[in-house]
Amino acid sequence: MDYSIDFFLNILRRSLFHPSFASLFLAFIFVQGIPVNSYLFIWSSVYTGSVFFVWFLGYMTKVSRNGRKSRKIDWDDEIVLITGGARGIGLLLAETLSIKNVTIVVLDIRKPEIEHPNIVFFECDVSKYDQVQKVAKEIIAEVGHPTIIINNAGVVKGKTILDESEEEILSTIGVNLLAPFWITKTFLPEMVAKNHGHVVNISSALGFSSVAQIADYCATKSGLLAFHEALRHEINARYNASNVRCTLVCPGQVETGMFDGVSYKYPFFTPTIAPIEVVKKIITALDKNETSDILTPYYVHLMPLLRALPGFINDLGYSIMGVDDAMKTWNDTRSKPKNQ
């Protein structure tokens, strides 16, 4: 069992930091006859109030984005399009959703290693707008209009800015950032017209804070954050399609092979996560038909706050955690032939 900080924080979230526990604790203090003006009762009230306040903020965020009532989707009516669905998170998503008898459309430059009657593969370089437009006509004619699009395709080169070639930089930008633009521009109009659909953008923890030897990847993931936020606001404020949901996924290091060899000094605080954990969170957001921000593991929630700290504190943290040395041990296993 992985006894990382996430394990213990998850226990606290379900116990001490849960509104039900906080309510029972304050009630227990009260029935003990402890005076309401005593320090114990006052601090117990502060604790309970704080737990409820944080819970209320989360609830209001959910309501503001989804309305008070959010109907679960009927999977029989959905068509899911996944870019980069030949391996990693994309492939696992396709496999898992196919069990629900959902029609899955996979866009990739390579064919998935699995075959399933519910999974339809179309070869496409999603970084090229003309290819996306061409394959879209085939998808609509053969399968129908996708109602859920998952912008998952991603590449990493693992080189410094000076070592990376122009072609490699353009490839990373094309797959990681331009592809979500092309896919969304192509398939969103039908969702807006029917006021039904879901766009999932898979960014990264590195979209919040960059590290050495991966500048192009970090830049594209940061750009994808901005793209996602603007898209969500345009859907609500320009297209008046509030039932088209937008989910942002920002995972830390996922065990998909993309970052093999990368390690940190203190994995207790920055644990890697299994792909299935990310997939379960995505499917839950889709199933509930809710706009969500999925940040996992827990340390990712703190990363947006880093930019508000003085620069020397950030640099000190990077130094202590050995962040800028992490990519030195990276192994490019995903681009190598299987017999190597």
TrEMBL record:
Its main location: membrane. Belongs to the short-chain dehydrogenases/reductases (SDR) family. Keywords: Lipid metabolism, Membrane, NADP, Oxidoreductase, Transmembrane, Transmembrane helix. InterPro entries: NAD(P)-bd_dom_sf, Sc_DH/Rdtase_CS, SDR_fam. It comes from Paraglomus brasilianum. The keyword Cytoplasm does not apply. Catalyzes the reduction of all-trans-retinal to all-trans-retinol in the presence of NADPH. GO terms for cellular component: membrane. The chain crosses the membrane at residues 16-34, 40-61. This is Short-chain dehydrogenase/reductase 3. It is found in: Membrane. PROSITE patterns: ADH_SHORT (PS00061). It is a multi-pass membrane protein. GO terms for molecular function: all-trans-retinol dehydrogenase (NADP+) activity.
